[in-house]
Structure formats: C-alpha cells, structure tokens
C-alpha cells in the first residue's frame, strides 16, 4: 500500500529500513515534544521498529499504518508518518495521524503536505469519518501544521505528557469527513 503527494511518497517500513527509522527516533531534536522519549540504543529501537513492520497491505497489530516517507526528488528519507485506527464500524471510524520529520526537512512545508496526505488516505482509503492529531502544547510548529491541514482545536488536556521532568499540556485537533469534503471540493 502506497500513498503519495506532490513532493512525497510513502511506503510501509521494511526490515532493511531500520537505520532510517533509528535516525528519527534516536534524534533528540525530533523527539523533543514527542509522547515518548528518544530511543537511547539500537536494541530498544529495534523493539519499537518491529511493531511498525508491515509485510502486506493489512493494518498492523496495533491498528496502525506506519510509513517511511521519501522525497520524490532524490528519493531521500524525510521521516516517519502513521495513522492509527482507534475505532471502526460500518459507518466509518476514528483515526489519529502522527509524523516525525528529520530536522533538515522542517520549515519547507513537508509536514503540512504529509499531514494532508494522511488525512486524505484516512478518509478516502480507510473510510474513516473523523481524524485527529495531538501535540505537546509547547510544540507550536506541530500545532500550526494541524491548523494548515484543516483541523480544528477540540480541546487541551492539562499536564498529561511527562517530558524532561515536567508535566506538559496536550492539544487535540480533529477534522470530520464532511469538513474535509467541503474544504476540498
């Protein structure tokens, strides 16, 4: 299963992609606001990585689709993207998108493009009726990406993320299928 956008292509992670995966999840700058801390060694990263390997077009065991993201120009590894399905029924379902880009791709519109592609994938290919995203309230750049992707602030949870010895708030954004359709006509 593949996704693409104007400048990016997405594909499932393969076993030989471990070093790419590790380059994201071991990067302190990338993981600064993430809900998990950066991985400190390859052994702990491999445990996490194995959960994201998908050898078919099926959803992963944890209800997610995780993708390695590459630039179409130069086929350079840009980062990690996923969509997790939280609930599903005959009328649709709810999913959550996430993304981590390597710092050299920040500030160039790649994250917004990636988020929009994940949202489109969730609505058109997975049949979801709502897609959400969340970020550490201190991560204003990630919040900006959610806004540019058409998402609406739905709430803020107080002191739910523990990072660097402090409890941080978390902002939650969402977009409904009908909102996405209206914006993309």
Automatic annotation (TrEMBL):
GO terms for molecular function: acyltransferase activity, transferring groups other than amino-acyl groups. Signal peptide: none annotated. Residues 8-174 form the N-acetyltransferase domain. SUPFAM superfamilies: Acyl-CoA N-acyltransferases (Nat). Gene3D superfamilies: 3.40.630.30. Coiled coil: none annotated. It comes from the Bacteria. This is GCN5-related N-acetyltransferase. It comes from Ruminiclostridium papyrosolvens DSM 2782.
């Amino acid at each position: 299963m593949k996704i693409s956008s104007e400048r990016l292509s997405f594909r499932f992670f393969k076993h030989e992609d471990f070093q790419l995966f590790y380059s994201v999840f071991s990067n302190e700058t990338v993981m600064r606001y993430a809900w998990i801390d950066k991985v400190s060694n390859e052994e702990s990263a491999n445990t996490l990585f194995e959960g994201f390997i998908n050898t078919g077009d099926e959803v992963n065991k944890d209800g997610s689709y995780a993708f390695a993201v590459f630039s179409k120009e130069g086929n350079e590894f840009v980062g990690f993207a996923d969509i997790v399905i939280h609930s599903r029924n005959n009328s649709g379902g709810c999913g959550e998108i996430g993304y981590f880009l390597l710092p050299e791709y920040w500030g160039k519109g790649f994250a917004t493009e990636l988020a929009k592609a994940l949202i489109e994938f969730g609505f058109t290919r997975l049949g979801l009726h709502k897609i959400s995203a969340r970020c550490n309230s201190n991560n204003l750049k990630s919040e900006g990406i959610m806004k540019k992707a058409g998402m609406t602030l739905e709430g803020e949870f107080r002191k739910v993320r523990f990072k660097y010895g402090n409890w941080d708030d978390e902002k939650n954004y969402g977009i409904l299928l009908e909102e996405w359709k209206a914006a993309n006509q």
